[in-house]
Amino acid sequence: MKLPVYFISHGGGPWPYIPAMQASNAALAASLRDIPAQLGRKPKAILMVSAHWETDGVFSITANSRPPMIYDYYGFPEHTYQIQYPAHGSPELAGRVQELLSAADLPVVADTQRGYDHGAFVPASVMYPQADVPMIQLSIDAGYDPALHLALGRALSPLRDEDVLIIGSGLSYHNLRQIYGGGAGASAQFDAWLQHVLLGSPTRQRAAMLQDWERAPAARLAHPREDHLVPLMVAVGAAEHDTASCVYHENQAFAGITASSFRFDATA
């Protein structure tokens, strides 16, 4: 059976590993823990498209059987720079991704050195704390072209029939400079637009509306750089004709912002 696709808001930094942050992220944690139950079975592997890996002009795929850790956050307690998430990589799946992207005329290379960044290992550690599901990462393009990333998702779509769980990992709001100022209002406005596009519009119109995302209310206040929005484009491309449902939503998430996560499923 074809697996669903997810776009998740992954929260701030290494929050599951910091007791003071766990309470403010309790709803997010519950939503991530529920994903394995929603699937009903353990996938063969996870393909994580993280906002925290950008490449320029060519997509990169991790092809390391034992990916190292990348602590790409700053100012957190010392123990968060010792975290280990020992899920295996999958060079075999990396090769399959290369095959699919090459067939779609999308440039792709294998990276045998890169490890897991926190956009990947943080949500994965909540979903699968035993680290017993292999995981690979795929980069986003630094040009942030929505059409390109929708095409990327379309190219990856066959993996859903191969028991691979595709997850776009970002945030529905990502403006760190404004998060404690105007973040509440901007995030609520932009989130309402996302809900309308993903849940309230015909699926045949969804891709076109997302390509025009900069015209959404508070668009550039919510995403001055769209690195954390682009993984949504990949998820939508991989599930272009599927029904969307909101699997996480908070009006007062960490720092008081509105945040959401979405699932795309032919049977939703």
Strand content bin:
15-25%
The whole-angstrom Rg is: 17 Å
Order of helices and strands: EHHEEHEHEHEHHHHEE
CATH architectural arrangement: 3-Layer(aba) Sandwich
Main sheet strand line-up: 5-2-6-1-8-7
Shape: globular
- Overall number of strands: 8
Number of helices: 9
What is the average per-residue confidence, as pLDDT, rounded to a whole number?
A: 95
Q: Pairing-aware structural class of the strands and helices? A: alpha/beta
CATH topology: Protocatechuate 4,5-dioxygenase, Chain B
How many separate structural domains?
Answer: 1
Q: Uncertain segments of ≥5 residues (pLDDT<50)?
A: none
Binned, the helix content reads 25-40%
The biggest beta sheet is recorded as: 6 strands, mixed
Kindly report how far apart the N and C termini lie: 13 Å
CATH class: Alpha Beta
> Can you say what the CATH homologous superfamily is?
LigB-like
Show the helix and strand layout:
Blueprint: E1 5-9, H1 19-22, H2 26-39, E2 45-55, E3 59-62, H3 91-103, E4 108-111, H4 118-127, E5 135-141, H5 146-156, E6 164-170, H6 183-199, H7 203-211, H8 219-222, H9 230-238, E7 243-250, E8 259-265
Parallel strand pairs: 1-6, 2-5, 2-6, 3-4
Antiparallel strand pairs: 1-8, 7-8
